[in-house]
């Protein structure tokens, strides 16, 4: 069996879209019960209550979770409010404790997904479980690692699987805590439409203001649900306070979300015409790029002949400024044009490098 064979009917047992909510970290029994109570009272759409019991932190000496005692608080939430429960596991000991506490849904975090040895350890500890297991994308933009983690779970006969898109770390500062890199997630969804894909806007945004927009974008692209960090007193949270919201704000946000219909019956012909036009334009873009690189080859030969450095900062500045100016004139975003031209410039440098060092 491979990943494409999985039916993943578990998602059908929850209202659409699937909403997972709860605090980043379990801090106290009272905090957990207060948060769960207010979620229950303010919104009927939330099916699963999440809380971090163990918290992998970037640096030592930070709050790393309350540990096993927090599992008892998750149990109380389940008993008193009827939520299914979810938490992150990062090693075999976590798995054993979570299974003993009858946690319904386990997820593998981004820092764990990046390490195949860790994923294998978790998979073997979960062998044959009927629990739902979700896998967050790795911190770095590597689709193969994400898929590989799910394959390791399947290799241990774990059949109720799903994926969480939480964005990717980047050295460059952007408006996101973790850049969404939507194309990577959409490539995953394209290969495995049968595996439910859930967005984690809290970790993508790193703040409260963008949560609704990111969630709606994901639903527009066919994601099946969202995981949103929700706290009874976000400003006092022990971890990731800036990205958590109150249960009441969550309820308002969910009420504004709109599910998109995936059925295109009735306008297939019209959308087909537009797609044909796009395909034709894409072909023209590829042809133009090919011509551009052939000119770069000629420039590379001249630079080699006259011992000129490949990278010319003034020239790149001129290209970049012109591109940004044209973006403004045509209504395209500066960020979009900037990404395109950086990629084109990088390829052009590679082309010229190949010529200068006689790389075939």
UniProtKB/TrEMBL annotation:
Superkingdom per UniProt: Bacteria
InterPro entries cross-referenced by the UniProt entry: Aldolase_TIM, Chorismate_II_sf, Class-I_DAHP_synthase, CM_dom_sf, CM_II_prokaryot, DAHP1/KDSA
PROSITE patterns hit by this protein: CHORISMATE_MUT_2 (PS51168)
Residue ranges annotated for the Chorismate mutase domain, each copy included: 265-356
Keywords attached to this entry: Transferase
EC number: 5.4.99.5
SUPFAM superfamilies: Aldolase (SSF51569), Chorismate mutase II (SSF48600)
Protein name: chorismate mutase
Protein species of origin: Chryseobacterium oryzae
